[in-house]
Amino acid sequence: MGSIALAEVWDKTQTAPTQNLGTLLSQSASQHANRTALVSLHQHPSDKEGDTSAISWTYAQLHEASLGLAHQLSANGVAPGSRIGTILFNQIEWALMFWATAHLGCQFIGIDYRAVSHKDHARDLLESVPCDVIVASNNKLALAVDEALGQKAPIKHRYVVESSQTPGWKTLAELSENATEDLAKPMVSPNHPEETAVIFFTSGTTGTSKACPHSAVTLYSVARGLSKAHAITRDHTICQHLPGFHIFSVVYSLTAWLQGASLVFPNSTFDADCSIRAIQQSRNVAHPTAKFETLETVTIGGSTVFPELLELCAYLGPKRLAAGYGMSESLVVTTHNQKAEDALTGGEDVCLGTAVSGACIRICQPGSRTLLSRGEIGEVHLGGLPVFGGYLGLEHESCYREDGANFVVSGDQGYLDEQGRLYVLGRYKDLIIRGGENISPFKIERVLSHETGITAQVVGVPDTVAGEAIVAIIRRDSGIELPHDELRNIVSKSLGPQLSPSMIFDLTGDLGHKNFPMTPSGKPQKATLRQWTLEHIKKTNSRQLNHTESPIESQLTEIWSSLTGRSAASISPDTSIHTFTDSMTLIQFCSAVFERYQKSITVKDLGEFKTVRSQAMLLEGRQKMETGSDKTQDFNSSTPPPWRELPENRQQVLRIKQAAMGRLDSMGFDWGDVEDVYPKNDIIGPMARGARPNSWNHRHSVIVRNCDQARITSALHTWATKHPLMRSITVSDEHNDFYIIMPARQSWLCHQICHGGSIDNAEDTLTYRFNEPEWDHVAPPGPFFKVTILPINNTPDIGLIFHWHHVIFDGVIIRQWYRELGQIVKSQQPLTVFHPFQRYSVALNRRMRNVAAQHAIDHHVQALRGISAARDYLWPPQRVPLWLKGDDSGWKYPDGRLGEPGLRTPLDGNHAIGTMGLEYAISVPQILGLRERFEIPPPIVAKGACVLLNMHLTGGEEAILVTNESGRSWPFVDSAAGDEGKSDQSEDNGEGVNPLSIDGPTVTLAVSRTRLLGDETVVQFLARLLQEQHVIEQHSHAPVAKIIDRLESPPGGASPTSRADADVVRSILNRQVFDWLPDISSTQSTAGEAGQERSAGDSASVEMLEVLSRTDLGFVWYPSLKEADTTLKLNTTWDDAQMHATEVSQAMKGFLSAVAWLSKSENWERPARECRFETEDEITDVGPEKCYRR
After folding, report:
1. Within this chain, do residues 596 and 688 fall inside the same structural domain, yes or no?
2. How many domains, in total, are found in the chain?
3. Which of 651, 705, 852, 1041 is deepest in the core (most CB within 10 A)?
4. CA 549 – CA 569 distance, rounded (Å)
């Protein structure tokens, strides 16, 4: 097994300085004495009117003046180690004070001049770091300091740059009055390089700003690292328009001065026009704001960087673009300097470069110091030479020391790629955790704020089902009237529907505030904004609760009652429906609502509108579909246009025709006999290329009671006529797999409905021609459905042996097909209504390239990055090649080589039962309590047990398994309107479709990776799984093949790790599957059709005897629980060549023990990691049930 790089990168090329900051600056002044050190374009040498020249100082002049100032301060009692607070604009005096402080060995403290106007905040800053000296640019700032601290504050010296008009303050010019020494005399600072030289403040977005002390070691390391990374020389000019209290300002100024480069202040504060003029006047500028040939480099940093910002900066015309990353605690730790044209070829995530300046970057599991693998998303930890030793006067858990270096937990979410380059995705504290998915509010804000006249902030508010709901708060300019729905559509089209805000509020009209809450430094205070939002929601909900019940509320209550069996009186209009429903009931409710009201409500809506009252309000606000429109007609009332006749498919159909003619001709048919053609989905296609002749086969033994041959033959003809996929074969062109639907004529159906002679008893169906190589399966290219009719001697009964291939069915639809067969046999009306699979298949295929599909692919790729590092956590262990349940005669390796006879031998010999499986049961009376109290349904409890058992069996830190998803939703419906190249069918968004009745396989797969987070409780663990499940369902239609392709070949190119990740995912897909097939017995008909199951006087019935699954899978967990029941059943089937039945039995008992432990209320607040895999509760062997299993 190849080694997988951990998510850590350390720049070992940098060494710590041996001199202090004063010495370093003096040495540079000596080396570059006559070169220009500083130009202040907005300051002039004299006060004469008309003097427009700028103050310009050489290194010798700056050194001499700052040394003189240091002597003057010393003469006035300022000693080494004193703290000098500066509230200065970008001006000559800022540089003077910075150099003088370094000469003295004092601590330079840059204070945000915007902060002092906020009295409380200014007091907090100045009291947290008491200063011996304060220097302010003007009297207004001096007065603000006095108002915040008062005259009695222990500040020994107060100086103002301009003429002093504030009592107690002197001008800097007055310092010379007490000077007695030679002002040009060298001054040797006694400071050690590791002593504090500069103190920065954090922005204080989460509360009080914290002081971050830095030394010559951290400052010099960064300055040297930046100069090397950006190739800055003494011939460069740095356009410095950042404020002097900002880390980037200080370190870039220091970088320039240590290299002998020139620093230019365009203005006292940032002004774009002034910066442009500065660049015009300079020949070689390393920091920009206009499109000029003199621009060398544009450097971007300070917040999350997005591609649009790179494009904007590239438009300015620099030769190079640089993106950097750092914080007050670590200064600048990465930079990525590249040619401007190369910087625009990346993806959505902007590369911030690799570690520089002796820094270490780690990506750890959130809340821990556990290193992840490269490619995995986690929390960014920063360490090494640039990182401070901790907050001043404050112990904080985010700071630690390890491997001889200081480290700080950044609070940022990010990852390292294969080359060790950093990508930062956002702040963890700002991320919205919706359905287990981390959503960056900045992306949504960026899209909304692109609209003219709109300023937006996005926060998350608590949501019981999704975890958090996305809420946008907008401020409109005067005259802007963009409706909320239009704003949602804008986000949906740009980012996908899953990032569209659930709620949008107007800052003034709804929340009652004119301005967004901001820190004094100008950063948004999301916590305050979130609180405003919650208060508004609470008031709104309170008003809604006072409404009286409306007629539609009563009607919706009746529908819920009919679907769940609960009395209408027991369903409160203000109780969450998720406390008593499952996923299938939600689907059925949506269908029933559409049938009754001709208004659409989705499962996604039910996640946000969880009570009957809120659902009624939602429906009352929605428009009714136009009567008689195509979308309101029953899908069986009109035949959809054949896919092969759509103009855009003409060329593809020609290729399919050519590929199919050989098979058609061999069976006596031609292209004119073909009824239709339509594409397979991503999961189904590969099943037609199995590893053995009977791959992905099912053999079902069925008895039809009280029915003769003529009747069952007629019923089977009617049945197959109604379901096109039963009459399909498949072909492939060079890109896709397709169903070819054959005619519902006797000439075709005779290949599928066969008579096999009589048998003596029902049990003979179990052994009839069992495992005969040429008969006991159906195989590509089809047909994929075959039924053999076997009259049972001396009885009125008929035996049927069905052969099915998984390319045409899944667990949800086949049970409905069998139910319908029973109806047909009984001549029962009305028959079940199915929605044409053709429409679903075409919609899925057409939308695979839209925004939602691409987002779904990206979601899975991000989740699977680095999975190859966890291959030791895979279960069950693989003993022989491939994963094949049942008879494996004729098996082949993936490359086509024939398998060695005897290599794959059942471990239990003739007693092998993996195909039949085992089934155990356990009573879990409190399992429904988790749903009633916490909205955690039984499937999540079962999945949680499976996750914990996997960790227990492998000893691993995470559980990796495949979950089978029903896929019973219309694919990517929310972004269909944004598709290009529409045809008439592109408007088919599935309104009114009951997804349970889509007439074919919609099953999908998802690779699930789960870890335990610290000591999270059982409820917290299961709630997190539920949120993750919502995300899985949201992205359930993501094409697995494209996920693997993108995982293997990311935008930056394939690597050993990316290939290993893809290979592991391929191996996982067939290894272990968790498959909760929901109970659909109560959701087969609409609310008005309940109770019409049996026709009086007709005793014919269809009975399943045995289900044999020959799927290419290693192990399948198949837990089930009927609605309102508390006995959980667990069936498993497995590859007999990989596992003994005793091993399986032990694992099953561990699974059920875990379910029982998680279900008990006394354990709900205990840590999930304490779960027990043995139980005193009775586990019953109930034998395999006669039902569908994989």
Report:
1. no
2. 4
3. 852
4. 13
Q: What does the radius of gyration of the chain's CA atoms come to, in whole angstroms?
A: 36
C-alpha angle 849/1069/881, rounded to 5°?
140
- Supply the pLDDT for residue 335: 83
pLDDT at 636: 39
At residue 397, what are phi and psi to the nearest 5 degrees?
-65, -15
The model's pLDDT over 774-785, given as tens digits with 9 standing for 90+, comes to 999 999 998 999
pLDDT of residue 642: 73
- Give the pLDDT of residue 121: 77
Q: What is the CATH number of the domain that holds 918?
A: 3.30.559.30
**Contact partners, residue 394, CB within 8 Å, separation at least 6:** 210, 211
Residue 822's CATH number = 3.30.559.10
Give the strands of the sheet with 1115-1120, arranged side by side.
1004-1011, 958-965, 1072-1074, 1115-1120, 1127-1134, 918-923, 1179-1181
The whole-angstrom separation of Cα 298 and Cα 1084 is 63
Q: Give a yes or no: residue 759 inside a domain.
A: yes
539 shares its domain with 565? no
Q: Look at residue 783 in the predicted model and tell me its pLDDT.
A: 94
pLDDT in the model for residue 635: 37
Instruction: Based on DSSP, count helices (H) and strands (E) in the chain, helices before strands.
Output: 29, 41
Q: CA torsion angle for 601, 604, 606, 608 (degrees, to 10)?
A: -120
pLDDT > 70? residue 449 = yes
**Same domain assignment for residues 816 and 861:** no
Measure the CA angle with vertex 644, ends 640 and 645; round to 5°: 70
Instruction: Mark whether 527 and 567 lie in a shared domain.
Output: no
Q: Could you tell me the pLDDT band of residue 550, with boundaries at 50, 70 and 90?
A: low
DSSP conformation letters of 104-136 = HT-EEEE--TTGGGSHHHHHHHHHHS--SEEEE
Q: Which domain holds residue 506?
A: 430-545
Question: Quick check: is 941 in a domain?
Answer: yes
Distance CA(1187)–CA(1075), nearest Å, equals 14
pLDDT digits (tens, 9 = 90+) for 139-148: 999 998 888 8
**Who has greater pLDDT, 791 or 518?**
791
Question: Which residues make Cβ contacts (< 8 Å) with residue 686, sequence separation at least 6?
Answer: 1041
Q: Please name the residue that has the structure tokens 């990776």.
A: 1009
Question: For the domain that residue 609 is a member of, what is the CATH number?
Answer: 1.10.1200.10
pLDDT higher than threshold 70 for residue 446: yes
**Residue 432 amino acid letter:** I
In a shared domain, residues 591 and 737: no
For residues 1127 and 1017, state if they share a domain: yes
Sheet with strand 503-506: strands edge to edge: 454-463, 467-476, 503-506
Sequence letter at residue 393:
G
- Give strand pairing partners of 965: 1004
3-state secondary structure 970-996: CCCHHHHHHCCCCCHHHHCCCCCCCHH
Q: How high is the pLDDT of residue 301?
A: 72
Query: What is the structure's pLDDT at 989?
Result: 67
Report the CATH number that the domain containing residue 523 is assigned in CATH: 3.30.300.30
**Same domain as 1128, residue 1145:** yes
% of the chain surpassing 90 pLDDT: 48
Token pair recorded at residue 502: 């659930």
Residue 342 falls inside a structural domain: no
Q: Is 5 left (phi over 0), alpha (psi -120 to 50) or beta?
A: beta
- The pLDDT tens digits for 1017-1038 are 999 999 999 989 888 888 888 9
Note whether 1121 and 1046 are same-domain residues: yes
Q: 705-715: string of b/e by CB count within 10 Å (b at 16+)? A: bebeeebbbeb
Per the domain annotation, does 334 fall within a domain? Answer: no
Q: Which residue has the tokens 């949602």?
A: 488
Per-residue pLDDT averaged across 894-905, rounded? 92
Q: How many CA atoms lie within 13 A of 152 on its CB side?
A: 0
531: pLDDT strictly greater than 70: yes
Enter the pTM of the model: 0.61
Checking if the pLDDT of 1080 tops 60, the result is no
